[in-house]
Amino acid sequence: MTTLRPFTCDDLFKFNNVNFDPLTETYGLSFYTQYLARWPEFFQLAESPSGQIMGYIMGKVEGHMENWHGHVTALTVSPDYRRLGLAALLMNFLEDISEKKRAYFVDLFVRKSNKIAINMYTNLGYIIFRTILDYYSGDQDEDAYDMRKALTRDTEKKSIIPYTQPVSKRELRHYMENTNYC
User: What is the number of structural domains in the chain?
Assistant: First the structure.
């Protein structure tokens, strides 16, 4: 039986088995603790009966007016626990919290090459809203999809009308800064 519970500071010393996956973005400790302090209700953990971390989701709420939304910063499941529906369970949790915060939609960024994740998000009702050029840095820059799912507050589904042209990271950053995103 899987238990969903809030992520704690102690979990930062136990979640390496989940973060070793090459598709998982790993951040510095200060980044995780900032989320724990600012958006604790959006940072949840799936735990096995033996106490092993199976996966986690880290998110936040941000934006202004009709751009008020839940955002998935990180979602990952340990390779040992994949294909059990844990990612969908964690996503549903974050969507429920976003609904309670009266968000219009939930969004996330995913590597364009991560076909398995894109398929899962599509099956959960997300659409590809736009492409962000060279979003992921590393040995080779990689584009990301900004995927979105409208929530009940967005009765006209305005938040999921896709952009037809890709945007750069700079354009995305400019948009976020000029719409009181954070």
Answer: 1
